[in-house]
Design goal:
The structure holds 2 protein chains of 2 kinds.
Chain A (H helix, E strand, L loop, with lengths): L1 H23 L5 H19 L1 H11 L4 H49 L1
Helix pairs in contact in A: 1-2, 2-4, 3-4
Chain B lengths: L9 E7 L6 H11 L5 E5 L6 H7 L3 E4 L6 H14 L4 E4 L11 H11 L3 E5 L11 H18 L11 E4 H9 L6 H11 L4 E5 L14 H20 L2 H10 L1
Parallel strand pairs in B: 1-2, 1-4, 2-3, 5-7
Antiparallel strand pairs in B: 4-6, 5-6
Helix pairs in contact in B: 3-6, 5-7, 5-8, 7-8
The chains are: A mainly alpha, B alpha/beta.
Chain lengths: 114, 247
């Protein structure tokens, strides 16, 4: 169990570093980094607190605390991905509306000049 | 293109994507049937010069900046028609499969019955032709699914040969399915308690190229549209309000 927790600790720190680096380079907007940073911090806290992990595993009825960690990691990232799907859908809707508006404005300008 | 003002207040809408072999012929045939109605080709960012061919044939061309797919194309045309004040829009596909001789019958049904949408139906008089058995199964399946939702039978729910009035145009400018729009559009209208009618038509073979609809794509179509139908039935009104505000 200890080795697994060390690995997840390293992964959490790596994720935090990657997100901060991407924000600094403007590859990710600050508002979209929040979900990833929150996910990484949750993962880090649980990886470093075996008592909390054991308590959660007990509450979930799981005999193995690492299993609880994997389940929580899965849930956290599902939430992050779901949030991103919502954002992408909204962007796609806005993008289509903008493309249609652009085409209509161009059409009207051409016909005005014709 | 000027705001609506012709004798019919009618716009012919032709969505097209890479239809250079057929588009000019379709425009000439439509003009032969409805000489006074303006024809708007909505070009879905074709790469083969469809837009130039359509302009040379005398149509107005609304060219999209990038490929949006059928729903995005048709909705762009509906938005322009609505902004220009048209009362009726009849959609004719750019591949030449829709026989323009039925346009007057579609228009007359819209005007005389007061319905919001008219569908050119291949199957109402039993003369329709199915391109493959999976597609036939899909059409049969959607007839069954749509019957209780629409409250009346629809013989050809997948037909793209449709006409709409201004009230339906207004609805579609705010909410129109992006992929495979025909069936979902019926459900969108049903949510507004709008009425539709079917008019028997005959479809023609494609003028050029061949259909990209395979048996596998038909199965995907069935799944995709079924999901879309149920989502439209359950759709949250707040989302639609936000979409409308964006327009």
């Amino acid at each position: 169990m200890e080795r697994l927790l060390n690995v997840t600790t390293a992964l959490s720190i790596l994720l935090v570093a990657m997100v901060l680096f991407s924000v600094r380079r403007s590859h990710i907007r600050v508002e979209y980094s929040v979900s990833w940073l929150a996910a990484a911090v949750i993962l880090l806290v649980l990886s470093r607190s075996s008592s909390a992990l054991t308590w959660i595993a007990h509450q979930l009825g799981l005999a193995d605390p690492p299993l609880a960690l994997m389940l929580l990691v899965f849930c956290v990232f599902v939430i992050v991905l779901y949030r991103l799907s919502v954002v992408i859908s909204d962007l796609k809707d806005a993008n289509i509306a903008m493309a249609q508006r652009l085409a209509i404005v161009e059409f009207q300008l051409q016909n005005r000049n014709a | 293109m000027k705001p609506a003002g012709g004798p019919h207040q009618l716009l012919i809408l032709i969505p097209a994507f890479n239809e250079i072999g057929a588009i000019a012929g379709v425009i000439h045939e439509v003009r032969g049937v409805m000489p006074e109605a303006p024809i708007l080709v909505v070009d879905d960012a074709s790469t083969d010069g469809t837009d130039q061919s359509a302009r040379l044939a005398g149509a107005y061309v609304l060219r999209l900046p990038y490929h949006l797919g059928l729903g995005g194309v048709v909705q762009a045309g509906y938005k322009l028609a609505y902004e220009l004040g048209y009362e009726y829009v009849i959609r004719v596909d750019g591949d030449g499969q829709h026989d323009p001789r039925y346009i007057p019958a579609l228009l007359a049904t819209l005007r005389e019955t007061g319905c919001h949408m008219v569908i050119g139906s291949r199957f109402q008089d039993g003369n329709g032709d199915y391109t493959n058995s999976v597609r036939a199964l899909g059409i049969w399946f959607f007839r069954l699914v749509l019957r209780p939702i629409l409250g009346k039978p629809v013989h050809d729910p997948t037909s793209g040969y449709v006409g709409v009035n201004r009230q339906a145009l207004q609805v579609f400018t705010g909410s129109f399915p992006l992929e495979y729009p025909e069936i979902e559009a019926l459900v969108v209208l049903q949510r507004k308690r709008f009425q539709f009618q079917e008019v028997p038509v005959r479809m023609l073979p494609r003028k050029t190229g061949r259909s990209t609809i395979t048996a596998v794509k038909s199965l995907y179509y069935i799944f995709h549209v079924l999901l879309g139908v149920f989502i439209n039935v359950l759709k949250f009104e707040g989302r639609r309000s936000k979409d409308s505000a964006r327009k």
